[in-house]
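Q: What would this chain look like folded?
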Amino acid sequence: MATQTESSLRGHISDMKAATDHLVEAFTHQLADQGVQKNATLSALVQRLQTTAKSQSQRLEAELDRFGAPASDGVKGLVAAVAGTVAGLYDRMRSNTVSRMLRDDYTAMSLAVVSNSMLHVTALAADDPALAATALRNMEELAPLIIEVGEAILPVVELELSEEFTPRAGAASTALENVRSVWKK
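A: My prediction, written as structure tokens:
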């Protein structure tokens, strides 16, 4: 019979895996988007996002296997699945502008980082260094990708605005400098 600690850890891992699987689904959907496909740089970025999320899902699956638990854990898994659809849900609800997809990716990955930080502290509190290391690795992989997505959005917005009006030349470059300076403060 599983201890209360093991049961709690299984639930947290299951929630994180469900959310991560929905990231994989959203990134897969975005790779098929024509706006992403016609930009080689963005396509490569979304491919890296998908590959990273798949690897993280596999690591979380291994953690669940270590506890002898299935990937789905009832209501908690359902709640995590709903929470994990942030990026994918936006894709289905409205027009698929690339900038909005990237914004939604940024949001969903930020949620994944804070969720992994919660899993990390839970694992540390439960004295499970392997799980703590998995959650930390997931955060370490996602953090630079979030920054990359945040920077990639800016020229995409400038390009999309050119369909509505003639944007000031260099707006994305200026915005990038400003955004970087904000994050350094």
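The chain has eight helices and no strands.
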